[in-house]
Amino acid sequence: MDSRLAHAVAVGRHGTISRAAEALHLSQSAVTKSIADLERQLGYQLFNRSVRGVTPTDAGRLFLERAQRIIADTAELLGGQSIADPYAGVLRIGVFPGTLEWILMQPLQWLVSRHPSVRLDLVTGNKVQSLRMLERGDVDIAISIEPVFEGRAQLHYERFGSLEPLAFVRRDHPVLNTAAPVNIAEYPLVLPTEVWEEQALRQLESSYGGDLDTQCHKIANFPLACKVVEASDAIGLVDKGFAETAYFRQRFSILAGFQLPKREVCWAVPKQWTVKPAAKALMAILSKVHGKHEMVFDIEDRAAPHERQ
């Protein structure tokens, strides 16, 4: 492995070349030359320099993330753990968007209880980042809605459940006291930071005149979104399964007449990479937990953060 990767990661971790050199047991000039050689070969800067130290550039941050994974994979491969225990090591899971993380609550509990040698590394990102990470092998398995993976010949994906988004409001919302058709554009909508499904995006843009950025809240955290809905006339979005729980019905009301398209949820892996045993185990657990294509809700896990806010 190119030693310059370790040098760059050390500089990024310690924030100065001098501290990185000390940790690496090298001279400061040797580390400086190593980073300069690497940047020259890459054709872009990894770090912004200042009198206080160094900070990664945007491109440098992506490079360092990948370099760290390469170093970890190399250590795992050479350590012989995969022979003694095929489940040992890091399982990198991409969840796109991050609002789908709750889907993994029960499956990951099962996974680590059955295979305690697994070490989890969960990452999220936007649409572009998600596909880049998956195709490059920066994540071992990705969870997202089906349109994200469609048309990608280099990926293998399978459905394991479905989501049906519904609109909800606080129980004393003024819209519930009128028989007139609801004009959803009269109220702000609480959306995740990015709408991933194109059909849903077109529907929302049609309702709000294409001006989602100024008329809607963008909140990825579901418990926090619930608090905003409870405290205002905002309209939130919730999965049908969770909306049918007693916990949810006690606090909110479903807004009839407005529904977004049903979405199939899938796991995906890059075809060119050998699938890790831990990833295969997670696939099987996802299918078992959500096997009827209706998402299973661990109500205590999902409700607790909301109650603590």
Automatic annotation (TrEMBL):
It comes from the Bacteria. PROSITE patterns: HTH_LYSR. Signal peptide: none annotated. It holds the Pfam family LysR_substrate. InterPro entries: HTH-type_LysR_regulators, LysR_HTH_N, LysR_subst-bd, WH-like_DNA-bd_sf, WH_DNA-bd_sf. Keywords: DNA-binding, Transcription, Transcription regulation. Gene3D superfamilies: 3.40.190.290, Winged helix-like DNA-binding domain superfamily/Winged helix DNA-binding domain. CDD domains: PBP2_LTTR_substrate. Residues 1-57 form the HTH lysR-type domain. The keyword Transcription applies. Belongs to the LysR transcriptional regulatory family. This is HTH-type transcriptional regulator ArgP. It comes from Cupriavidus numazuensis.
